[in-house]
């Protein structure tokens, strides 16, 4: 096993797949000459050339549309957004073309395309650069949505996304690009739609995904000092969502806390809560608790931002609440 950075895992996944399949190419702002805004495509221009690693103008609608059109014609594009906040400019191509083309064409066109880039907050970036969009895209039939939380998962899931014949939204984090983790030397794939139990426990189930799951790990460590055993599930994919793993865990622990870095209304945690009460209501010994950002645009002030974001203390309070120890 080697230890590499998150950005290196992303680069390796793309490069290995591009060596395997000449129909794969990368397009986006600063992906070529600058080696990527976050250096996630470092060295790829030198290896694959300007026809397969393409610097796009600041026109997300345009290069998202180029990606969709080329996917309809036999290519397998990777479209990088410098941030998914900028993907709002190209969202018409993602939702009205990429997600719907297979059905609208009666199955004549697959759209094997990956849209990838960072999501959610990354410090003092202000209200328009700190938004989480995974629940937006997960609302759309025809899209698959992946939000990895660590280096190993990121590489295996991105390779799976690139090989998939449907459009995939692959969401990263600016604050994770420097994270380090172990990955194998050999090729590996992590299947889309399979959650991972990162930590087994018996008293309460904590479900999360993406970088915010780190707060769940901190909380679980602190709660363990009080003899509280937390089972932590990393969804990894939010569409399709692995409800079976969540349900099985709740049937064991009888309590559920959901941690999500997004606004509360119509969130991923809202859907999980519905599915659990529908399929495992009799196993619940306490109401489900969910932890989200505050229901406001992200503040710029670091003190307000700290209050806006969920943290380990919020998780600890929620766990004690479902255990009636608050």
Question: Which features does this protein show?
Answer:
326 residues; alpha/beta; five-stranded mixed beta sheet; 12 helices; 14 strands; 36% helix
The largest sheet, given as strand count, sense and whether it forms a barrel, is:
7 strands, mixed
- Average pLDDT, rounded to a whole number, is 97
Radius of gyration: 20 Å
How would you classify the helix and strand content by structural class? alpha/beta
Unreliable stretches covering 5 or more consecutive residues:
none
Order of helices and strands: EHEHEHEHHEHEHEEEEHEEHEHEHH
Strand line-up across the major sheet:
3-2-4-5-7-6-12
Approximate strand percentage: 15-25%
List the helices and strands and how they pair.
Layout: E1 2-5, H1 6-20, E2 24-28, H2 44-48, E3 53-55, H3 60-72, E4 76-80, H4 91-98, H5 101-104, E5 114-118, H6 134-138, E6 144-146, H7 151-163, E7 168-172, E8 180-183, E9 196-199, E10 204-208, H8 213-225, E11 230-234, E12 237-239, H9 243-253, E13 256-259, H10 268-280, E14 289-291, H11 302-308, H12 312-322
Parallel strand pairs: 2-3, 2-4, 4-5, 5-7, 6-7, 10-11, 10-13, 13-14
Antiparallel strand pairs: 1-8, 6-12, 9-11
